[in-house]
Amino acid sequence: MSGEANKQDVGTPIEPASNVLPKILIFSIALTLLFTGVANLLPQVEGEAPVDKEINLGTLTPESFATLGESLFMGKGTCTLCHKPAPLGRAPDIQGENMVGLAESALADERYKGDAKTPEEYIRESMVHPSKFVVKDWGVAGSNDTTSPMPKVDAAPIELSTVEMDAIIAYLQNKDGNDITVELPTEAPAPVEEVASSGGSGGTPAPAETAEEAVTKYGCQACHSMLGTKSPVGPSLEDVSARLNIEQINQSILDPAAVISEGFTDMMPKDFAEKMTIKELTMIVDLLSGKASVAEDKKEAAQ
Amino acid sequence: MNLKTLFKTILVSLLLIWGVSLISVSSNSLASNALAAGTSDTVESRIQPEGKVHLEGDPEPSTTEEKSAVEEEAEPPIGAPKLKRKDYPKVGASSRGIVWIAAQMHLFFAAFVLAVPMFVLVIEWVGMRTGDERYDNMAHEFMKITMTAYSITALLGGFLTFALFLLYPQLMNYMMMVFDMQVLVYAGLFFAESALLYMYYYSWDALRYGNKKWGHLTIGLGLNVAGTTLLVIANAWATFMMAPSGVDVTGAVTGDIWEIMKGPLWNPVNLHRFIANIAFGGAIVGAYAGFKFLSARTVEQRALYDWMGYTANFIAILAFLPLPFAGYWLMAEIYAYSQQMGITAMGGILAWLFIVQAVLIGTILLAGNYYLWSGMSRCEGSKRYTWMIKYIALILVACFLVWVTPHTLILSAQEIKQLGGSHHHLLGPLGIMPAKNIAVNLMLIVTFLSFQLYRRADKVATVSYANFLNALMVAIYVVAIVNVVFAGVYYGYFTNTVYKVGSSVMQVASTLVVIVAGIVIDTLLFKNAKTIPAVWGKVSNRSQYALFALPIAFTWLMALMGYVRSSVRTHWHVYTVMKDNSPDNFVPSIGYAGNMMTIVTIMFLGMVLFIFWIASLSETKQSKPVAIKKDTEKQPEAQEAGA
Prior knowledge:
heterodimer, A: 303 residues, mainly alpha, Cytochrome Bc1 Complex, Chain D, domain 2, 2 domains, flat, B: 643 residues, 23 helices, disordered C terminus
């Protein structure tokens, strides 16, 4: 649009708008706060960097290994970013479908030119060399299903270790009731998810300083639901203080076969009496019996 | 001082420097000659200490330094450092927070001072071609605002560099090792840009007419070349951190600087930032015009700043329209580089931020459209088109609502039970990308329609084929809208996810066809057209607030998208090469990020208002205090009278 000021009015003084600057400021801040409000209304989730975790061979069972694999599948492995149910997925829905079945059909496919002979080997090969075999229609566009968009999980940025990959294979086998064929790690493995801050020098692990550290050190959460994590392998310990007294909790740790909870089998390691320090045992028992939180509350109240 | 005198001074200075250099070279050769002649009585020999001592005829003994130098050659190249938490300096506040604010403030101002000279050069050229001095004056006034902003940019850049080296020294060491001499090129270009900027602004009136104007435009071109090169160099640092190239898996440098710079995301980010900067710069100067319009004291001032505001808004919206397409390209390249990174942005932890993005872009489009509709009051001819406004508004609002519909609803356990899942059977499908692609493309198409109606308001076509062209235009709109909806629905909901991105290309093409066809058809249609008078300044004060809404939303949007771009690296300083083990290596919650964005936006807007005030101050002149002189003369009489 072209034009100019009304010639008849040229030179006529006009009253400027009142309080221009304050009005602009109020308008600007109000609009900015509206955007902030929207951001604060949405779900508030933080994306944590991988957290250090050590697995204890003494407590490891195939089932707890598979449970660990599930948490790696959902977390550090970032597998669920792409492996989702249709139509949202960008890769086969290996969580919803029987992975072992999928692996067997892939091995039987005439296009398969990889080196795997068993489902376990196939799953491992898919993780380390994703382009060895690409499931039909899931290849990079234009590659005629010869190149997979999947990153190598043992390389950056995912960087899964051999133990972590085995745990995921155990999970993928176990979730549909298939036999877990991967071997459990037998010697001191590298820490699951790398240890960024630990100054440990191998050998005997340092005694835990807190109850939470002790729980992590002995891998209680691999089988028991506690401290906010879930595991169906052993009985939940979230409400254990309502079921057992301090002596019973002590006994369950030092002599776990003495009483077996209904619906569960005798799977708990028997060597905690040799491994735990007295301080560690006391801290764990206090935590489970609720004594630790009571003491904490008293401490806060005193302050 | 006129230009000839300036050139003469420079020439004489250069001659002097050359003369001094000649004398220095001669004295060096004299000293060498003296040494060769066996005389040691020279300045050089007196100040030179003894070096290695060995017997005449024996080979020189090698030192441990030399040995280690030989050993070093055999060592593998240095990779990126692997940092522990204790390696990060602690300053008692969040290091990330400090760098976040410093970087964002610097980027806001840098974007502004790089963008304004780009469109100022075009406006100046238009002014020269049309002979309309208003363009020249407006371009000069835009540059006046840029001058203050430039100083603030440099100050903030210095602060950011200081903060980075203080808080992330190892990361900066590594980046320096990778980019090496390129950093000095950047510094050199910064000096060149400063010199050209000052020359461009201060020579405006000296080089205003005739052939001298071409000289001025050339300086402006040089300024933009320096500025754009600075932009692409700085972009290379950011994109290297996202998708490193020219280094091996350990981060050791394997390629030359060109290989390091031309990573897979470099050009998409270059294009995206280039366009976004223009839109951002246009929006800021639009707000300046709005501010001046509301403060105007005469009809001419009001008309001038109304026109200036319209032009700035035109620049902002015109640059904004292709921005989503540059965004598509960037996102597609991110997916091609790492599907994992792409999904982290669009479907993972950062996905919710795109709901905020929808609110921001919706605000920009609504404000831009509202400003155009308000502007129609300038011309009586617009009454022919005002009936369409309500339908455009309806489409805008409906599409806006689709765009902000989240895929996963925020529900309690009870609500999930009642709903039968976390996705509503009707709203769920509206939450995924195909629906949003339809919405955003339709919003862009109707925004262009608003713009086209506005441009047509003061014209009446006189060409014989007017009806045909109008029918063709309507047909193009209809086909484009049908195509956008069909591509979104069919490929988005009835085929594999992999094809969704492909369908968006079809939609984008439809929108672009409308824009290009609209411009071509209107150019042909309004050849020798009759014009209906339009009066500048005849718009409501309320419409000017749309000119403030635009820069606020743009600023917040820049902060948001910059945050997303940076956060897709998750816990990596340099993705896949150098891990972030600092206490801030997690992706913060949206609320925290939103609060940070608000802090930087308010700080930036506060500074911008300060710049506007400074620019207005330069026009204010205090009148000579004549009255005071008279008073002092009268004072003795008054004293006498009092006595």
